[in-house]
Design brief:
heterodimer, A: alpha/beta, five-stranded mixed beta sheet, two-stranded antiparallel ribbon, 5 helices, 7 strands, B: mainly alpha, about 65% helix, elongated
């Protein structure tokens, strides 16, 4: 056997290759995207006032029987500005209702933000102290949830929704859930 | 007679004591606060700041961390146990919010992996050394 093909020389190379595989896998991990413990579990219940009409309230159980998108946003959040056109386009082209969670915001500022940049939401609920957000495991803005007809959380996205995300993740999932 | 005097003395001391320590109530409240602080510290040292990720909620100055620390404090003051407060957070943020990864089937490799690597390295060394000692070059003497 050729000397350089003897196992004792190939072993360090083999170990190095294995380490490369682990490094490659590790570099693909995204620790910033904390997986939600709610996937497959019922969306946490709450009752909040609506952003636009203070006297009216909303609860997730109002949406039972429908697939819906729950988007966490705030007027002070710059990334939300970035994803807003995508949400507007999605709301226009899809029959799926988008409900907004106005997170840790001031009511007037929230309203003005929607007036200025457009309103993709069927309605928004006002979560001034972020308690409902915390109940949903929200740790940054924007975040987006997809909830099915039985009120079970199916998907959580952290960070702005992009057209690619809509095409590859949201639309296929919503279609699948609508068929169920 | 001396016994009666000592009893009277004790009685007098007991009666006068509250007026000699006017801040007793305030001190008691402070003690309760200090105890609550300690409990909040214990709980928040077990929770990871999900935004900064390598800090605990106790250490982090991120807005979310400050807010969650306040929430922990409120929950503990309302009578929740430390265990319950931690579970509250895990329920919402998942296992990742625990600063020390739980010992589960899925984290076995995380906890014991380094020791396994160390042991296998030592084992390799041991067998290599033994092979050298009893191998073909074993009788060769090194020139001093």
């Amino acid at each position: 056997m050729k000397p350089y093909l003897r196992p004792r020389y190939l072993l360090p190379l083999g170990i190095f290759a294995a380490l490369l595989v682990f490094l490659g896998a590790g570099l693909r991990l995204k620790p910033q995207e904390v997986p939600s413990p709610f996937i497959g579990k019922p969306a946490p219940a709450f009752t909040l006032t609506r952003l636009e009409q203070e006297q009216q309230t909303f609860s997730p159980r109002d949406m039972l029987g429908k697939v819906w998108v729950f988007n966490v946003w705030a007027s002070w959040c710059t990334s939300c500005r970035a994803e807003h056109p995508v949400l507007l386009a999605f709301a226009k082209s899809s029959a799926t209702p988008v409900i907004g969670l106005n997170y840790m915001d001031a009511r007037e500022e929230g309203r003005q933000w929607l007036d200025k940049f457009g309103n993709p939401y069927q309605l928004s609920v006002f979560d001034a102290d972020g308690k409902v957000g915390t109940d949903y495991g929200v740790y940054g803005v924007p975040e987006t949830f997809v909830i099915d007809k039985q009120g079970v959380v199916r998907l959580k996205l952290t960070g702005p929704v992009t057209p690619a995300v809509v095409k590859d993740s949201l639309l296929p999932l919503i279609e699948e859930l609508n068929r169920a | 007679m001396p016994k009666l005097l000592s009893v009277l003395a004790v009685l007098a001391a007991l009666l006068l004591a509250p007026s000699l320590v006017p801040g007793a109530a305030a001190q008691a409240a402070e003690a309760v606060e200090a105890e609550l602080d300690k409990r909040v510290q214990r709980v928040t040292e077990e929770l990871r700041c999900v935004v900064c990720q390598n800090q605990t909620i106790a250490d982090s100055h991120a807005e979310l961390a400050v807010r969650l620390k306040k929430q922990v404090r409120t929950m503990l003051a309302q009578g929740m146990s430390e265990r319950q407060a931690v579970d509250f957070m895990v329920q919402r943020y998942g296992d990742f919010v625990l600063y020390r990864p739980p010992l589960k089937g899925s984290t076995w490799l995380l906890w014991f992996g380094p020791f396994l690597l160390l042991l296998s390295g030592l084992a390799l060394l041991f067998f290599k050394l033994r092979a050298i000692q009893s191998g073909p070059g074993a009788d060769v003497e090194v020139r001093p």
